[in-house]
Amino acid sequence: MQSTKIKEISYESKKIKKGTIKYKINNFPDYLKSWVKTFSGALTLFCLIILIVIPFLSTEQSYVEFFLPHFTLAMIFAILAASWDLLTGISGQISFGQSIFFGIAGYLCAYLIDYQGFPIWLSIIIGTAGAVFFSLIIGIPALRLKGPYLALGTLVFSIILLKLFLLGSLSEWLFGSEGISGLPKMSESSVLTYFIVFITMIITFIAIIQISKSKLGTIFKSIRDDETGSEASGINTTKYKIIAFMLSGVFAGIAGTYYALYNTAVNPTGNFGVTISFFAILMASLGGLATITGSAMGAFFFIFVEYILIELGAADYVQLIFALTLILVVRFADRGILKPTLERLKDLWDVLLGK
Amino acid sequence: MGIILEVKNLTKKFGGLTAVNDFSFEIKRGEFVGLIGPNGAGKTTVFNLISGRDKPSSGSIRFDGVNITGLKPYKIVNLGIARTFQLVRSFKFLSLLDNISVSCLSKRGKAVSKKIGTEEYASSILTSVGLVDKATIPPVVLPHGDLRKLQIGKAIGTNPELLLLDEPFSGLSHEEKVGITDLIKKLHADGVTIFMTGHVLRELMTLVPRVIAMHQGKFIIDGSPEEVANNKIVLEAYLGRGAGFA
After folding, report:
1. Are A232 and B85 an interchain contact pair (Cβ–Cβ within 8 Å)?
2. Assigned domain for B85 exists
3. N or C terminus of chain B with fewer C-beta within 10 Å?
4. Which candidate from A215, A226, A231 shows the least CB-CB separation from B91?
5. Contact flag A234-B51 (C-beta cutoff 8 Å)
């Protein structure tokens, strides 16, 4: 009975998604033209062009093998942060447990490649699906919790999972503190890897933004803004919270498998650590809750701040600086940095164009 | 024409406090009924029990013959009961149109949206409550009267057969009250059964042909506004012991 309910939920959510994207696909050329003419569209296109050009700026080995992968890493975290923004910023389900999807997908993918000899792409798909399925099992009871209790519940569960893989009696069966290593990279060429992640990031962002703008997104936001009111409007809030959880899990899971392949290894603290969840929250919050694209901004910001600090030999200060940044953001820029910056830029743009 | 709402021996206890005590009544389809009682009488609790927000301690509620006691609120809405709240609620970060759209996306609302489109349905409701010119703005800038209209619009979106209005006039200016009254009258004329609470007798008396009175969770009387206004127990409840007549 449970499985038919799950199938019904995933079918309904796919149905709703198709309904709104179809129009845009059918009218794509015109839609693209009108989008590029808008300020945010033009700016986004500009950033995308920069991202496409970056891998080709230099052919020196130090650039391609050491500097470029940081962009790849930033994009992996952008996907993770966007998945959190969908769950918390759009749907209002405060989650401190993105590491749950991230870690399970990464481990499952690593296991399938290393121990079962599955091809990479199949392992990514099964790893992600496994993460989503597993999270449903935890998620359904957890969704009885609301607000800070849900936040706490997801945090606690992510820590339980971490300890299970690291220390518990089961950890021997779960590859222990060493985890699984010797995984292949996504591709021999770090430029190709970069583009695979880049395209995935684009698809992720388009998908989440379209969801946000769709009827499903309206329902998610109604649950965020007033859950009782949403129920009183006839919405089965439990069902939609589960859908939000699952959608978030898909993207966080993909990020998790990509991360495993990026590091060519998985281990408990690296993939199930609480810092993974915190990074997602940090990056999305800096960019701006519910903006989705802010997650990309936040991801690039934090990955490069971390890179700079490590290069300067101040690796110990990374977490301190991140925490301070979060405090500053919460205190002074609770809408995040993206929207206010865009608004200022747009005003400047209008002035320059003489409007 | 039949009984649309049948409430039998409804009781709700919150720990030591009995908020609703052995409360029974029937409402026929198409009626326009008021529920009065001083503050704290239990009117909102009765609404919460009917709409599914709370579960009764004992007793039963039947809607159109179907037992809805203890069902989840969204299921009850999709059977045909909608309600508004005493303290106005809205989806703060959504436009007015989106606020209405949410109800249009309920199972019951979708039955209508399928034929005319969700946006068209939501717009037509916004028009009928007189807020269509503010369709794209969020509720935060609206005056209280408009928020009450928005609430009623949200309730209409689910295409209800029975509408529970909890203190729809509280906090409104005289003009705003007239606007809401006209809206409610029109809904009733369209065939919606209306069950309304209030604690100011004067407003209700001119509007509804039948009033149920309660006090401290208990049923007092069910009759015409004149009968109820002259009832000794009702007067004592509002004015204190010793009040003789209006």
Report:
1. yes
2. no
3. N
4. A226
5. no
CA angle A325, A328, A331 (to 5 degrees): 150
Q: What are the start-end ranges of the E strands in B41-170?
A: 58-63, 66-67, 81-83, 162-165
- Closest to A264 (Cα-Cα) out of A115, A114, A125: A114
- For residue B150, list chain A residues with Cβ-Cβ distance below 8 A: none
Q: Is A226 within 8 Å of B106 when comparing Cβ atoms? A: no
Give average pLDDT by consecutive 10-residue segment, chain B, 246 residues.
91 93 95 91 94 95 95 96 94 95 95 91 93 92 93 95 94 89 94 89 84 92 90 82 50
**Res. A195: pLDDT tops 60:** yes
Beta partners for residue A37, in sequence order? none
CB A135 within 8 A of CB A249: yes
In order of their start, the domains of chain A are: 2-275 (1.10.3470)
Asked whether residue B4 is domain-assigned, the answer is yes
Q: Do the Cβ atoms of A236 and B98 come within 8 Å?
A: no
Chain B residues whose CB is inside 8 A of the A236 CB are 72, 74
CATH number of the domain enclosing B24: 3.40.50.300
Global confidence as pTM: 0.89
The burial of A225, by beta-carbon neighbours within 10 Å (0-12 exposed, 13-18 middle, 19 or more buried), is given as buried
Please tell me if residue B118 touches chain A, with a CB cutoff of 8 Å.
Answer: yes
